[in-house]
Write a structure and sequence with these properties.
Layout: E1 2-9, E2 12-18, H1 21-36, H2 51-58, H3 60-82, E3 92-98, E4 101-108, E5 112-114, H4 132-145, E6 148-151, E7 161-170, E8 173-174, E9 178-184, H5 196-200, E10 208-214, E11 228-242, H6 248-254, H7 261-295, E12 297-299, H8 302-320, H9 324-333, H10 338-366, H11 372-383, H12 388-398, H13 401-424, H14 431-454
Antiparallel strand pairs: 1-2, 2-4, 3-4, 5-12, 6-11, 7-8, 7-9, 7-11, 10-11
Length: 455
């Protein structure tokens, strides 16, 4: 066998493997031994048909086809060892020709990441300030949440709630047909179609109205885009919202432990501050990571991109709670092919993949420490509020090898991002200190294992 590395491009190695005549003959002999056991040729018992007769009966091509199929994996294994290649996925192997038997092989290689000087990145986190108007807006939302709806005898206004009968069609097909439907009238609303709320404003109780509306050309559901819908509605009841006073009584209705409005306002301010800080922290982390990725040079084989797109599709299927048939139906509804859908996901897949590869390389460069105790602490944190009847099974799942590997990766990623934000903010520790910390963690765990063994 002769293996020749033609080129390496996009982290893929392109090999040509040419088999020696003796290897082909050995392959043909093995193919004969496999086929003769299954051959049913008149005048011969199974397994006793001479090779020459078998070749006449099936044709030499059938024997060669079986031989080249079974020779390929072994030839590939020898070739990658000879060329010192480290594949990360199954290869693409194609028979190039039969005289001599030659294979063309594409091997996906490990990605390569060259980090920039990320220690020079300096980004200041934005200061978080909760404004008084934000607090007032949140308190107003609380008032709406605790409001009551009272029947009124007047025309429909925006923000009223109406009970109505609705009949509608798109062409000759029924659309929305419902008795005593509850509907919140809101100017500018696009449900069920833009302009519907505006048609109801000014109507009175027991009044019936017919009208037509057209879906925009860029409507989310492609099968409705640009089509005209006809509606017939009858108002059965009109209600207006009655908001509670912003006072101590409202505060106690929100939480019986609140003494007065001042305490409610304080808790709302505290909650807004916490949420704003968490949002600012995530935004800051992402800015730092984006800058680190921007500085880095990343090369990976195309198969990794395809796998990440597959992963995004699986995530969407889980989110929508659909199987492959459900996904097919969704693609038909938006009039897109699977290829077009994959193309739409490609930018997100590339971003995810590059970020993951860069963070993995940073974790290696910074020597991010992690040990069994970290995983135990993570499991404890994840399950501390789980009821006892469910906790045991969840812990059992979380301690499975693959799950623990995923948890370890999550912890490393989180700590890597923390390290990068420390560096960007000017509080990052040196690689030497990180190595000292790792050695301390390893020594502590080794000591704990030794104590456990002596018990």
């Amino acid at each position: 066998m002769k293996a020749n590395l033609e080129k390496t491009e996009n982290r893929q190695a392109y090999l040509t493997i040419e088999m020696e005549p003796a290897e082909v003959e050995e392959g043909l002999s093995k193919a004969y031994n496999r086929l003769v056991k299954k051959a049913n040729i008149p005048g011969f018992r199974k397994g006793k048909v001479p090779r020459s007769i078998l070749e006449q009966f099936y044709g030499k091509e059938a024997l060669l086809e079986d031989a080249v199929e079974h020779m390929a994996p072994e030839a590939y294994e020898k070739a990658i060892k000879e060329q010192d290649l480290k594949p990360i996925a199954r290869p693409e192997i194609q028979l190039d020709k039969t005289e001599p038997v030659t294979y063309k092989v594409v091997v996906a290689l490990e990605p390569v990441v060259k980090l920039g000087d990320y220690h020079q990145i300096k980004i200041s986190p934005e200061k978080v300030e909760v404004k008084e108007e934000d607090v007032e807006k949140a308190l107003e939302q609380i008032r709406h949440q605790h409001s009551i709806w009272e029947p009124v005898d007047r025309q429909v206004n925006s923000r009223d709630q109406v009970t109505l009968d609705i009949e509608s069609k798109i062409g000759d097909d029924p659309y929305i047909n419902q008795k005593d439907a509850e509907y919140q009238v809101e100017k500018g609303s696009e449900f069920p179609i833009k302009g519907f709320s505006e048609e109801l404003i000014g109507m009175k109780k027991d009044e019936t109205k017919e009208f037509k509306l057209t879906f925009p050309e860029d409507y989310g559901r492609a099968e409705l885009a640009g089509k005209e819908a006809s509606f017939k509605v009858t108002i059965k009841e009109i209600k207006q919202e009655k908001l509670p006073e912003l006072d101590d009584e409202l505060a106690r209705s929100v939480n019986k432990d609140f003494k007065d409005l001042a305490e409610l306002r304080s808790k709302v301010t505290e909650s807004l501050q916490k949420n704003a800080e968490e949002t600012a922290k995530r935004d800051f982390e992402q800015k730092v990571v984006d800058e680190v990725v921007k500085q880095a040079e990343v090369e990976y084989p195309p198969i990794m991109e395809d796998e990440e797109i597959d992963n995004l599709i699986r995530q969407q299927m889980r989110r929508w709670q659909v199987d492959e048939r459900g996904m097919d139906a969704y693609l038909q509804s938006i009039q897109k092919t699977p290829e077009q859908f994959r193309d739409e996901l490609k930018p997100a897949a590339i971003k995810n993949l590059k970020q993951s590869l860069v963070l993995t390389e940073v974790a290696r460069a910074e020597n991010i420490p992690i040990g069994p105790s970290d995983i135990e602490n993570e499991i404890e944190s994840m399950t501390k509020d789980i009821p006892a009847e469910r906790k045991e099974k969840l812990v059992e799942f979380l301690k499975m090898p693959q799950t623990q590997a995923n948890l370890a990766a999550t912890i490393v990623t989180r700590r890597t991002v923390e390290r990068l934000t420390e560096i960007a903010g000017g509080t990052g520790e040196t690689v030497e200190k990180a190595e000292e910390k790792t050695e301390a963690v390893e020594a502590k765990e080794a000591e704990a294992e030794q104590k456990e063994e002596t018990k």
